[in-house]
Amino acid sequence: MSFQLSPEQEQLKAGARAFAEEHLRDLAAAVRAEPDPLTRAMLARPVFEKAVGHGFLKGLVPAAVGGAAGSGVDAAIFIEEWATQSPDFTISFAGPLIALTPVYEAGTPEQVQRFVAPFLADEGAPLAAMAFSEPGGSANFDAEAPGTGTTTTATPDGDDYVVDGTKAWASHLSGWDGDGPDLMTIVVRAPGGVSLLVAEREHLAGHLEVEEHYDLPGLRGCLTSRVRLHEVRIPKANLLGEEGQGVALTRNAFVPSGASIGIFAVAAMRGAFELAHRFALTETRGGAEPIIAHQAVSDVLADAKGRIEATRLLTWRALDAVMAQHPSALELGLHAKVFGSETAVEVIQRLVQVVGVTAYDRHYPIYEYLDEALAYPLIEGSNIGVRRRQLQTLLRTPGWDPLAASGMA
Ligand SMILES: Cc1cc2nc3c(=O)[nH]c(=O)nc-3n(C[C@H](O)[C@H](O)[C@H](O)COP(=O)(O)OP(=O)(O)OC[C@H]3O[C@@H](n4cnc5c(N)ncnc54)[C@H](O)[C@@H]3O)c2cc1C
């Protein structure tokens, strides 16, 4: 086992970095300047089409079903390079990562082929959304009465289910034009319990009403909305697995994306570190020498660098386990999510203090990284409401071995 990047991974890094520097940097600047959430999300479409043309969308789909996804470390390298320039574009582009995961797990061969097909395209801007979260809460989506749990209902009617409810937060619930994405995996309450249904675009058009586009404090290019689904007719042939399988499928759907938050955290820390380090090397702030000569300043930078490296390695390990479907994937993925996201907030908050008051001006870009990082403990299942509870369940599992995940048992 080596941690050296292979020649292919060096090439992947260079390709992802070149695309990000050529297209995502300017997009991020344009998004920053645009106040309206819908307008700024639409700025991404031409870049989205370019990324599809370069084959990056296929790179999110496993090779076993016709895509070109590589290893977990490959995924980490790619995400870090893109997210360093624009995490919001990266999150928006990666919709299929969550929405298609339950299709791979529980779909019939016919369903897999049909649902994956739009995302193997070489052109266009196909969108997939995982419609899980609801405005009234989703941490307890599996709760039964007296809780409400998932409130979106699927009522059987002949060969179809009729879906009614309100979904929120997922990227691109509204699609590019308000008529929905190309594919929407919907968490519903069916007669047999929480279940997953896949809606295709023709089922959604005319039955989806956008109630609000959220105006996010960070990740501002992500189009997250609250949408009402009314009388969406979805063929029973689009049920994934059996009725009642939805709780497990939903939890599993967020394992890869949860682990990837560790790398989004690295990208934010990397950007903030670069700014604070340069500031410390070049600014004297009226003193006789650059502020890095002060031990206190240097200590913050050194500690930050160590924590960035630790988060990157943990997340490489987690994503490697996820892609290899290793039994430790859930545990390592949860640590990458929780440790990575909270480390990023702490590290960037300290790096801001290295820069001092100059940082407290929007023209100096370090605060953007803090705005981004503040999202990571909340999204992909909040650390308090979802992720630490999953860790608690693991810790309480009879026979759980603290050395197993590392392979050191
Ligand atoms: C940019 C962005 C992209 C997103 N993408 C998606 C997506 O693709 N699909 C999707 O469905 N959602 C998406 N979301 C929503 C996101 O995944 C949230 O993490 C998810 O909705 C869960 O939020 P929550 O855990 O805060 O739940 P809530 O139910 O709103 O809980 C709120 C808080 O209550 C407390 N709490 C609730 N229940 C418990 C409990 N049992 N134990 C302890 N504490 C509890 C916790 O403090 C928790 O943080 C996105 C959000 C953003 C901003």
From TrEMBL:
EC number: 1.-.-.-
UniProt signal peptide: none
InterPro entries cross-referenced by the UniProt entry: Acyl-CoA_Oxase/DH_mid-dom_sf, AcylCo_DH-like_C, AcylCo_DH/oxidase_C, AcylCoA_DH/ox_N, AcylCoA_DH/ox_N_sf, AcylCoA_DH/oxidase_NM_dom_sf
Example GO molecular function: oxidoreductase activity
Keyword Flavoprotein part of the UniProt annotation: yes
Record bears the keyword DNA-binding: no
PANTHER family: ACYL-COA DEHYDROGENASE, ISOVALERYL-COA DEHYDROGENASE, MITOCHONDRIAL-RELATED
Family statement: Belongs to the acyl-CoA dehydrogenase family.
Name of this protein: Acyl-CoA dehydrogenase family protein
